[in-house]
Amino acid sequence: MDPMGLGPVSMMFTDGGKLTAYTKRKFLELVGEINRTRKKYPKAKLVLGGSGGWQMEVRDRDTKALGVNHVVIGECDHVIGDIYNDIESNNSPSSFMFLAGRSWRIFRIFRVLQLMALSRSCGDAAATVSSASLISG
Known about the structure:
Layout: H1 8-13, H2 22-38, E1 47-49, H3 53-58, H4 60-65, E2 70-73, H5 80-88, E3 95-97, H6 104-119, H7 125-136
Parallel strand pairs: 1-2, 2-3
Helix pairs in contact: 6-7
């Protein structure tokens, strides 16, 4: 949910990120354990996604340092098989971004306003963005 501690609530309770959020600490512990296991399996790849995926994109340098191979952002149930096939065949980008049924213009607005959408605890960030884009012009 908040892997790097960048969400509004985490930032508030960590004095703007000066302290380490519990979610970030646990996420880093989990990735550390995964990476220790990956040493036994050198072809294994670490793919992240979900509601906190945007944080991996924002903190690209940290993402690379953690050994993350791919980040999936957005609704991708309809193409997840293709994504895994591309990853498996080493024929994929480091980031996959999907915004189901939305144009690229809306997607760019989404990226600018995603913190606003997340802070509203909106289950469908795209709907929030559509509303926000209508309000903002």
